[in-house]
# Entry
Amino acid sequence: MRFEDLDGDRRADLCARTPEGLRCALSTGEGFGDAFEDPAFRNVNGWGDHDKSGTLRVGDVDGDGDQDLCARGNARHFCWPADRAFAPRIDGPELSDAEGWGAYFCNTSFRLADVKADGRADACSRGSSGVRCLPSLGLSFGEAVAGPAWSDANGWGARKHGSTLRVADDARMTACDPRRETTRA
# Structure
């Protein structure tokens, strides 16, 4: 379950994954509106496994100011723009189980971060050979950029390191970041 501002109105909207899909309800400020659902996240499609459903992340992938939903499946990550239709789906590059991205600790390392500082969240993850970030191009992703060599061979394969990959979320810093305050004036 996640509270995130999906529609850019600065109110926390609510999303949760159920056996039938991902359900979201937008905040009205006094409660929540009708829930809408994306059936792509159904258990029968493999999303009941924690190594998949546990990768659900939010970030502004397309640069429109709304928080989009992303998750990693067996072969790649997918993103859905934050609107009631969850469409069009953005297929991310292959981060397949066969290439060393399928271990539990690799899945939990999946993060969205604006690495290029261009207003779009890039997809980053740690696989068996190290960290890779895939720059968002809006409705697709560019070629992978190598990150630190935090590979299994360098001792990063231990389960205890799996979920330690973190990013500073620029969107959450808006209220207290003095640089942001001066640009609003």
